[in-house]
User: Fold these one by one.
Assistant:
Number 1:
Amino acid sequence: MSVYTELTLQEMQDFTKQFALGDLNSFQGVDAGVENTTYFVSFETTETVLQIFEEQGFDEIPFFIELNRRLSEDGVPVATPIANQHGDRLFTIKNKPAALFTRIQGSTLDPISMNACQQIGVALGQMHAATQHYHDLTRENHRWNTWWESNVERVLDLVPKAHQETLKDQVSRSKLFVDSAQMLPTGIIHGDLFCDNALFHKGKLAGIIDFYNACNGCLLFDLAVTINDWCSDPTGRLQADKTEALMSGYHQHRPLIADEIDCWPLAVETAALRFWMLRLVALARKREGGPQAPPHVKDPNDFLEILVARRLDPQCQLISR
């Protein structure tokens, strides 16, 4: 969400005149994030967000637009892609794919409350219940076991020596989960529903954002990713009150089946491994340099702590009540 593609007033007016939203009042580039160009665009009748996609191609973007459209229709709080007067939702700006979305009015929360956890659980359960039926909408998970297995040697020297064997062992353990996941409920998952991808307004969940890691996958894995971030204390252990609040919301729309509860230990371990590896790979890319090197890398050890805590005690009782 940064500004890599600069637009003049005339260029923005030429683009926005195709929408039945009234006159363009103002627009402002958003200087945050690292992947896409984002503008807040204000019309007479509504507030919107223009995204120009800098990395994904025209073949990828329709998936994200259609996913957000369907979720919005199914009542999940997400940004709705706006159609022009001809019904189009995918556009070209300076030879790059672009889309206009409704703007979610809200901000991230810190600290995270039990009530916020309950609300995000409701929304995630609602999303999972809906996407189980989006059979014609598909996208491969590009950061599943083949990805992390292929990057072990690349990052091993970046891992504290005391936990290099932990990494190798966890890759083997998570392969067991990958095999089991094929038999568990699947649908389209968010893949990255961390606290900073949910906006709240006056204590109420206003919307879930950043679906660019969404793909077909195991619903339990997506739940584990969310709980690992929303419900972990500073030592990596799950906080009982927040976890139970999130699960109570989730169960309103999609109660877990017995096989999912049985797979919970490996699910939360694998969710921690996935993001430990993501940050380790980012650190390796920064070390290697070049134009694709990320300028900032979050501490990989945050997820090492979560992984160690889950391996010691997955706290299954918190999700099975």
Number 2:
Amino acid sequence: MTKQDITEFVKPLIIDGKLKEACQYLTDYTNGIDKYIERDLLIQAGIINQHEREHTNKLISKENYNMALAQARYAITQILDRLPEQGNPVADALNSATDQLTNILFLSANPKNTSQLRLGEELRKIKDSLAASTYRHKFSLSSESAVRVPTITKALQSQRPEIVHFAGHGIGEEGLIVENDLGDIVKFPTAGLDRLFKRFAEHLQCVVMNACYSKEQAEVISKHGIYVVGMNKAIGDKAALDFSVGFYQSLGEGNDYEFAFDMAMVNNSVNRKDVETPELWLNGKVVQL
């Protein structure tokens, strides 16, 4: 395995805060090749374990714990530059991890007698953002258009996605708008959405509802331990597109959902009327970033 291979593999682990895993993979890579790096990795692993114990036993504050992890993250990142160009093979672990794709299911609905949205363009921009990203090989994107309730339930059961993206219309407390066989409006009530996503909470990580007035659904669904993006009022087409580009661009660079939401909000900051429209929810509360 080469330095570039192992670096690309462990960087997302470091970003996600999985520092002990990163140390272990780097130790396997340098085992018997560079004793000085092995020693430094052992020291960092020991520091991380110590602070985890202290945090668990409430011997240090959360602020000091986060500061210690940030220092460890920096130290491990510095070690990446010192890695030998060739190391031990850790291909089995790497291949196993890269086989675990993040599956994104894009759902859209724009029934007759509703304002026409640029849903096709939104899908294309998401595809382009992921295709141009560093970790594009770790994502799989599938889509269903003109969705009905049975379309959604079937897709969730057959595909088991980690991310669900809904693009369309919301109607506040009443739910989201989908279609029937004739393309007419059908209301998918909040209670039904709650019941649906509760069943998939074990593997579902994030739901993006790029739909007007969808904060009520975001609050309810997020209570199942799922990150949910919802809109607290109507959102314009351009703002919805800009937000999506920023969000998936950031995920494709190995960032977590909170970081990706922040980058999406930066992209959306040019749309003054919609600057504060998207919200990120988790456990029934707005995430304060």
Number 3:
Amino acid sequence: MDEHIEKNAKGRGVKTGGFKRRGGGGVWRRIGVAAVLASAFAGTSSGVSAFDFKISLPTLVDAFKREAPPSEEETSSTNGLETADFNIENGAASRSTAPTFEIDLTPSFSKFLPYSVALGRVVCESNFPLEETAELQAEIVRLQRDLVGYLGVPESKEKISLCLFRDKTSYVAFICEYFPGAPTDRPALYVKEPNKPGALMVRRDERMVLNVRHEMVHAYLNAALRNVPIWIDEGLAKYFETPPGERGFRNPFLEKVESDATSFFASPPSLTRLEKLTRVDQMRSREYRESWAWTHFLIHYSSETQRVLALYLRSLRPEAQAGISSQEAFRLQKNAPMKRLLERYVPDYKAKYVEHFRGWTERREAYENGR
């Protein structure tokens, strides 16, 4: 299972799905920081729409439909959704390119990791020649493009250090020197300290590529967004950990989810329950599977569900999260924002969820052939 650490200004580690260091004893325990939607989705008594953000919304495109992104004319049409939810500040629909930010891409750990290469916002550092990771490097570049282009996640304003190790011995030695007290019994570890780039450490084994894909989603989402809810954080990580051409069709969760959808009394898993989760120790196999299933439904069912996901992620941007603390995010969690969005824009979403997974096998061929 993936691990994450984030240290606050006082040195106490806090991170969704991570650990917390207590006192001077170096004891780490699993903890989850509150991670919910900002108050922009809270109801207002003034009658002003809670969804009228003054932030550009990049078009979310299904990564597996081999079609061009929607035109500006298509984007500006309502398709059953309120136009105001998709307009930028001047009132015009747009697929404007995200601004490019200058960031320092200098390697951070040259002492231990002499080989390095910059891959977008990611600086890959290694203690073995990077020529051996050409395929992985290409996936890292593509994954960033997918998160920004398909999901509308903004470009990260800080670098992410990806540290690769040839063996467990060097992996453990590195963690002990740079992050003393952090767990060393996991194949991958993500650490985020205040005012410092996040560091993702992965040791080489048969699951290295999968671990990099999974953890890179966590690293990028939490570098570009704020207070990312644990269920969508893990749902997207589980979705994107699968090789690019297989994400919609080969995940180990799919068989169980499809089977559940074919039962006589089939109903979707409770979004309300998932959105109340705030700690990684509340995530069991069932919660990971259900988070993945809702993510799959949102990405693959229709343009309406794709745009609901885009709205949801847009609300986690730094601009929309300004002034929202983790504690406040925790308090607002009970509002169940994704459920509210679906109730508003896809009122019969429960029936459509069941329909989606009942018919997914038959739809695979059409997706794979670009129809």
